[in-house]
TrEMBL record:
InterPro entries tied to this protein: PqiA-like, PqiA-PqiB_transport
Source superkingdom: Bacteria
Protein name: Paraquat-inducible protein A
Organism the protein comes from: Pseudomonas shirazensis
Entry annotated with the keyword Transcription: no
UniProt keyword list: Cell inner membrane, Cell membrane, Membrane, Transmembrane, Transmembrane helix
Localization, UniProt: Cell inner membrane
Any Pfam family matching the protein: PqiA
Membrane-spanning segments: 55-74, 94-127, 148-167, 179-198
Amino acid sequence: MNRTARDHPPTAAELNLCLCHSCGLACDMRDEPHSCPRCDAPLHRRKVNSLARTWAFMLAALVFYIPANLLPVMNTTMLGDGADSTIMSGVLEFWAHGAWDIALIIFIASIAVPGVKFVALSLLLITVQRRSQWACRERSQLYRFVELIGYWSMLDVLVVALVAALVKFQALGDIEPRVGILFFGLVVVFTMLAAMSFDPRLIWQAGPEEAMDEVARH
């Protein structure tokens, strides 16, 4: 049975409550100054300039994503023969030598995950800016997914470090980082900042009555 907005309990905004971004405590915004009584962090009903900062961080990450994939990330020397490797050439080389598991990890973490984050964040930003009431629940779940995969963004960097350590054990082998790994590190940092800057509460702000009806249907 569908229920109207009046059948729902009051929202946090109506009760002048706000969650602390640092410790998660529900704080009364009627108290002055607006700071958390537990950790003394400043309180905001919404993340300040959320959309502008998210766009800025994501576009910066997209700019760095191009040289991160085109420039070499490491130079491997075996028996005096050295060669630079980009991310994709490293994936193909690992695959050709039978290390398909490492190749798959590097491909997913270095190419697929950043691409998914770019598409997901762009979808969230565009729909929020258009004040879309489409699939609010699913978009909230998409944002949580972006947050989740962000924790694994540095996985391939760890794999490269592991490979470097294994090569160093061989007396006739050596490995050195190249400038591409710096750009990829910047991609990871800026995509994480973009996800942290986005305020998922804006998804539900477009149409409160319609959003509440959608929650009631679930």
